[in-house]
Amino acid sequence: MEWQSALPFDTSIESAIRPYNLEKNYCRNPYNSDRPWCYVLKDTFVDVTSKFCNISTCEGDHLFNCGVKYTNTSGWFASPGFPQAYGIAMQCKWEITVAQTYMIEISFTDFDLQPGSDGGCLYDKVEMFDGDWPDGSFTSLGVFCGSATPPTKRTRSYILTVKMSTDYVNNSRGFNASYVSLTREPVGCAEGTWLCADRASCVLVNLLCDGNPDCWDRSDEQNCECHQIPKEVIFCPPSNMQPWPTIFPNLYNHQNVTEVLQSRQLRQIFDDASALTKYPCHLQGWFYTCYSFFPVCSARRRVPPCRSWCIEIRDRCQEDISAELLELVPCNDLPSENCWEGTDLTEAKECYYGSGQNYRGSITDTVKGKPCIGWESRTYELDKYPWANLEQNYCRNPDGAERPWCYVGEDGEWDYCNIEPCSGRVCPDRGVPRRVIPLHQAKAYYWPGEKVSYSCEDGFTLVGPAISECQRDAKWDPEEVPTCIVDERTLLLGEKLNRTLYNPNLRPNSDKVIITVEGLVSSIVNVDETIPSITTDTSFYLHWNDPRLDWEPSSYGDLQRIEFPANNVWRPSIQLLRNANPDFRGFPDVNVAIKEDGEITWTLENLVVTTCDLNQYFFPFDNMTCPVCVHVGGKFTSGDEQGDEIRCREENSTEGVMNCSVSQAVQGGEWVVLVNMEARDNQACLMLHLRRKPTYHLCTTVTPFIVLSLLMCVTFFIPPDSGDRLGYGMTILLSMFVNLVVITDFLPRSGNIPFIGIVNIVAIVMMSFFMLVTTWVVRLSRRETEMSQCTKVFFLAGCARLVLLGDMRRASEEDKSSNMDGVTLINSRVVPESDRLDDGEAPGGSPEADVVTVLKGLQAVMKSNQQSLEALRESLEGWKKGGPGSDDREAGESDWERLAHVLDRLCLIFYLGGLIASVPIIFYYGNGRIVI
């Protein structure tokens, strides 16, 4: 700071001003210090302090200079005054340059600079650059401060620049650094790049002669001279453009015109030249090609095509031109600034090419007349499309939309801009004929894809297309402009339904309105017996007369019938009766038809679900009645209260419908359906009489019941001692329950049970009872006690003969075991019964009598042996035929087992008899009498 300004802080220096020439803010040494110094402000910028100045001694001591150029292959340098504190307000620069085949590696052995308060390098710092900073090409290697030693850094180039900056306050010791040279590998350049003259780096071809050095030796900006395009180049410039100065190398690294004419890229372009010269996708396609081979030269600087121009042509022509051709010059390699935008030098009007991605004009309003807002608040577009030149509030097309656009609201609202394409391919406004009303915003021209629509004044009808679209060839499709002609229907509608003359809330007259009706059942959609209900496609045609709506046909072009919106005329209130659909909200609104005499026809058509009356007793020979009825007026009012009356129409006025004198047969699946119509008082009904086709249920429901009932009889033929008898009977019983459930699934759950269901229940009850009896019979057959004689006589003799089993009694075991046709063995002697002595009679007799007696006894014994052998033979035959279980059971059965056979036969007779007898009884007494 100036010495004069420091006086208030140090008054002792006032007498020394003149001897020491304390002028301005020059460094001086009034107190004979080690070296010159000056006052500086402290960090607070309020108090002052003294600091030594960065001035070397004339004797050339060890102090380092503030900025030196080094060319040795290795060396070291330090901050001024090191290891003492460096000076204030210094800007030092050390530049190290070695041979072009080397690169530099720098290391710091000591480092101490004032750090920033926030951890950054806000005050004192050292910066390193790879290259010639600031005039040439360079890359930052980092910024360093504080006491931490920076890492070793290695350059890519052969130039290293070190810059040191200090502030006006505190200082530290500084740094000490050394460097060495390292051999660099040879550089190879890829296609599309150019090797710098120092052969140390490669730069993109489109960066040559662009005014900014990109090579470390600045060779990319040398030998830049502008030349005219040679005359032997006949394809550039295009015929409608003036020649421009050009420069080499071009974007393909061609060094002269000869290389251009012999290049592979030019052959590829000419192979696809038709796509460029005929302009199928972009008018400037060939212009861009010329600029890529012969870039514009201005003030010895090459001006390459802009990136936005490349993107515009690429996006617009990617369907017409091969991808290989479009990528000859990658768009991302082109600059976004200081480039050629592709504007025709002879073009004076404000317009855009292609989709306008390269548009750089200054139009700021939209087709709707809204002003554009600035791009500065659109962070997304600014970050994603830095090449799109999003400046101020100009119209642009960064995202490849159909044409340039802009934002018109802070909430993201946007609109296309009012800019005409340079191709002139827009559709001009065709105007509108008399009585035609345009339904679009009128403009001077319309872009391809925009549509215009037309309408007519009241009482007129549009003739021709109501909508036309602008095509890409700048023609309207369709080309015809519509016109308007008088419409008698519209005139009639306007006159008759004029709200001042006609009120649809008022009845046609004060008398009772007579409504005639016709009906039609188009189809039966579903029949549900379990509710029961029916779903039908039903139509009612209501006719009444409204004298307010009649007209003279000759006054309206002989118009005799017209349709009006139903809400515009008076209609009776209609209710659907017996509705079974909770979602039904009424019949849909349809137009009403009106005749010249004022007769109105209103059609009510809908899918309706209504309840039915089912007579299910004779299932599956049952029938059902399903009335589909509409009620005029309130649901609980009569016709007299409402003032309306509904009647059947005498003659059908609608083709294909029916009145009360006609019946109609309708297909109904398993039902035979006959429909007729009834109308009385204030309701009309379509009566559907349904009769079931029984074949299906006879086969699936009735037949299984009969078969199961008969199979129950088999239970009584199974032997009592068989273990399968009870299991078989229980299986049949459970099957009957299942069959009963099947029957009830087809029918509504009501108190009336069908005939087949009652018979099924009776059969189940009888089966259950006889299963209990069978259990008792099985238990009885296993008894081993002696059966009474009365039981034998009644069951084994009488009942057995009654059930056709014969006399099942048998002789006593005693008689059978000792009786051999009147012969008895006594004391090992065979004695006839007639010769047996009574008790107390002494044995004995004549010898002749004994011989006769013995012979008779032998005869009896022989006969008995014959019977035993015969029984043995029969037993063996039985074993031979059926095994051990097929022997004559009857011979070994007990009386109780025989009794079981008799009881089984009785149960069979009673089961069949009871089942057969129940059928006529249930048939007679069941219908209407059995209610559960």
Task: Set down the secondary structure blueprint.
Elements lengths: L2 H4 L10 H4 L16 E5 L6 E5 L16 E2 L3 E5 L12 E7 L4 E11 L12 E7 L6 E7 L8 E2 L4 E7 L8 E10 L9 E3 L6 E3 L22 E2 L16 E2 L10 H5 L2 H8 L1 H5 L7 H9 L2 E3 L2 E3 L3 H11 L5 H4 L24 E2 L26 H6 L20 E3 L6 E3 L3 E2 L5 E2 L7 E3 L6 E2 L4 E6 L3 E4 L3 E4 L5 E2 L5 E4 L1 H9 L16 E16 L4 E13 L15 E4 L9 E4 L14 E4 L3 E13 L1 E3 L7 E10 L6 H4 L1 E5 L15 E5 L2 E10 L2 E10 L2 H17 L12 H22 L9 H26 L8 H14 L10 H6 L4 E4 L2 E4 L14 H36 L6 H4 L2 H31 L7
Parallel strand pairs: 3-5, 18-21, 30-38
Antiparallel strand pairs: 1-2, 4-11, 5-10, 6-9, 6-11, 7-8, 7-10, 12-13, 14-15, 16-17, 19-20, 22-24, 23-25, 25-27, 26-29, 27-28, 30-31, 31-35, 32-34, 33-37, 34-35, 36-37, 37-41, 39-40, 40-41, 42-43
What does this structure look like?
The protein is built from 19 helices and 43 strands. The protein starts with a helix and ends in a 7-residue tail after the last helix. The protein is α+β, with helices and mostly antiparallel strands and 932 residues long. The protein folds into 7 domains: 50 residues, no CATH class; 115 residues, Jelly Rolls, CATH 2.60.120.290; 127 residues, Frizzled cysteine-rich domain (Orthogonal Bundle), CATH 1.10.2000.10; 75 residues, Plasminogen Kringle 4; 60 residues, Complement Module, domain 1 (Ribbon), CATH 2.10.70; 198 residues, Acetylcholine Binding Protein, Chain: A, CATH 2.70.170; 148 residues, Methane Monooxygenase Hydroxylase, Chain G, domain 1, CATH 1.20.58. About 5% of the residues have low confidence. The strands form 14 sheets. It has a 6-stranded mixed β-sheet. It is found in: Cell membrane; Membrane. Pfam families: CUB, Fz, Kringle, Ldl_recept_a, Neur_chan_LBD, Neur_chan_memb, Sushi. Keywords: ATP-binding, Disulfide bond, Kringle, Membrane, Nucleotide-binding, Phosphoprotein, Sushi, Transmembrane, Transmembrane helix.
